[in-house]
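In this section we walk through a basic example: taking a raw amino acid sequence and producing a predicted 3D structure, encoded as discrete structure tokens. The instruction is simple. Fold the sequence below.
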Amino acid sequence: MSSVVLKNLVKSYDGKKNIIDNINLEIKDKEFIVLVGSSGCGKSTILRLISGLEEITSGDILIDGKVVNNTHPKDRDIAFVFQSYALYPHMSVYENIAFGLKMRKFDKKYIDEKVREVAKSLNLEELLDRKPKQLSGGQRQRVALGRAIVRNPKVFLMDEPLSNLDANLRVQMRSEIKKLHQKLQTTFVYVTHDQTEALTMGDRIVILDKGKIQQVDTPEVIYNNPKNKFVAGFIGQMNFIEVELEGSRFSIEGREFSSAKDFGGRKAVTAAIRAEKMICGDVSITVKPEIIEMTGGERIVYFYLNGSKCSARVPLDYPVGDTIELKISENDMYFFDKESGDVI
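The resulting token sequence is shown next.
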């Protein structure tokens, strides 16, 4: 068992505002869970608290059912892969991977077997004698992973490990890390600000904002059923449109819509629709494009609806000129309370 449980976890500095604000989270054994949010939301701080690199202010951290609040980092049986890789520049690849085992006083034969086994699994066999400065970014990342894997820890913590790589290499390394998780069958806690990484890698996603958890669920549920406006806007490309209500009726650019939802007597709400759904409905609205971006197999068209800046993802053969015809449906819309931001 390699579960990690956070109970009423709080972290503040000098008694000021909580960076981590009463977080409760159960990370299951062998789960790949992704913490995602904008800069400053507290996701990296959570990793440092789990690892013991920072002390908690209050609450409990449990690993395998045991409270580890006062357990030294080296005794928590956790491996940490940093954004900067944190390799020792004066050591060879072999020495970097072997370092943790040497510190634990394993014999030389065992260390050599483990290092070469890990190097083979990560295609590092021909690089064992090189120093980090002689390696590419992707190779350095694999060495950092190798140094973590060789210890066979209970839990892997990864803090934006792909952020320093170019786009193509990030795609490759995403699949490599997923395969690694499947092979090792160990608990992974992965931090990123990249929504694509979160959606493609996580068994579950934890959306964070200002030190609080906004939603925890599978990528499919997070994408299709966001709990609030923040989650809806953070994952995917969502358009938010302010609308006035008359009962269950509202209008967008003069075109009238009617909803089956109970708006609870509200006079106004925020309607939302994803960019890829802007040409999938039955109500036509013609708008003037402001900006058109080419993204390879499709285009992103920017325009205004009810004074709100919006976008549509359209195929290359979709007619776009001085105007573009949208085709939207109320069935594809979400509705959020204007004050709380909660989904209606």
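Looking at the output, two observations stand out. Residues 259 and 330 are 7 Å apart (CA to CA). The helical segments are 43-51, 93-103, 108-121, 137-149, 167-184, 195-201, 219-224, 229-234. In the next section we compare this with other chains.
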